[in-house]
Amino acid sequence: YGNVNARAIEVASSLSVPSETVDLNWDNLGFGLVHTDYMYTMKCSLGESFTKGELVPFGNIEINPSAGVLNYGQGLFEGLKAYRKEDGNILLFRPEENAKRMMAGAERMCMPSPSVDQFLQAVKATVLANERWIPPPGKGSLYIRPLLMGSGSVLGLAPAPEYTFLVYVSPVGNYFKEGLSPINLVVETEMHRATPGGTGGVKTIGNYAAVLKAQGAAKAKGYSDVLYLDSTHKKYLEEVSSCNIFVVKGNTISTPDIKGTILPGITRKSIIDVARDQGFEVFEKPVTVDELLDADEVFCTGTAVVVSPVGSITYLGKRVTYGNTGVGLVSQQLYSGLTRLQMGLADDKMGWIVEL
Ligand code: COI
């Protein structure tokens, strides 16, 4: 992707980009939007391909009230992070995986998608243009949010006539307010996130609106988030609102297999490899609630949450706790294995890191 780099640098360097790091309270970053300098946009018509995008000042966008995304939810998003290394260089983690996932989602949602090269170029250009917002090493990361939406007008139900690809960024710290402390989950037994044949396996925006009600009810009761079950048997684990789930028993780690109702997380996939590399036996298979309640340790994975240990699960009013207090050993070991790679502190044997 050498020429992608060159083009991204060219796009970003045509702007006036102040280089000194922003004066922010880096120790207080949570997961909320911080306005940055630039965003990337690119448009195309239905049936055509994206051609050329541009960086514009970050801000509101204008959209027709009858846009496909507003009326019929024709939209996708992605999430990835840029880290600042000790030597000042900027690292991206497996960005082409996000590009490919967006292409797969676009196919499901009847949208044209940027190519892998276009996606990478847009991400890199946006990161470089907002370089001063990347937290110092160890203080967090720059969260990158690519969007793809039906921005053209439709009234009758149909794919929109025009599409917009947009990338914006925000410096972030920990996703859960618990920070790295274990989170408390409740198993949702009434509402479901996804159904077989539906869109649970792609990162469409509606999947996330669909979980707000159960998530809100859980938060009101003091839980961190909700764990969803499969809608057919109400017995197998699916995922948490914003992340995938893993259960640990002895030297064995299990996570629900990808079968169309679960988001194929890039952190999920990476943790499977990191765990195997660390000597664990990892299974992607149907995981029952019983296995969950009987586990030694439970943790969640996601770009935003990274590896988040679970301290307790509540199922039908019964609460099971893990690891007494504090972070489980396996979660800690995997968190460290993954984040050392992402921050450029460990040897990148897998070839996952893209350095800007
Ligand atoms: C991510 O982990 O990047 C996501 O897209 C989840 C989102 C709900 C924050």
Automatic annotation (TrEMBL):
Record's protein name: Branched-chain-amino-acid aminotransferase
Assigned EC number: 2.6.1.42
Keyword Transferase: yes
Family as reported in the entry's similarity comment: Belongs to the class-IV pyridoxal-phosphate-dependent aminotransferase family.
GO biological process, alphabetically ordered: amino acid biosynthetic process; branched-chain amino acid biosynthetic process
A Pfam family that the UniProt record links to this protein: Aminotran_4
Organism: Helianthus annuus
Keyword annotations: Amino-acid biosynthesis, Aminotransferase, Branched-chain amino acid biosynthesis, Pyridoxal phosphate, Transferase
Residues recorded as bearing N6-(pyridoxal phosphate)lysine in the entry: 203
Cofactor(s) required, per the database record: pyridoxal 5'-phosphate
GO molecular-function terms, A-Z: branched-chain-amino-acid transaminase activity
Catalytic reaction equation(s): L-leucine + 2-oxoglutarate = 4-methyl-2-oxopentanoate + L-glutamate; L-valine + 2-oxoglutarate = 3-methyl-2-oxobutanoate + L-glutamate; L-isoleucine + 2-oxoglutarate = (S)-3-methyl-2-oxopentanoate + L-glutamate
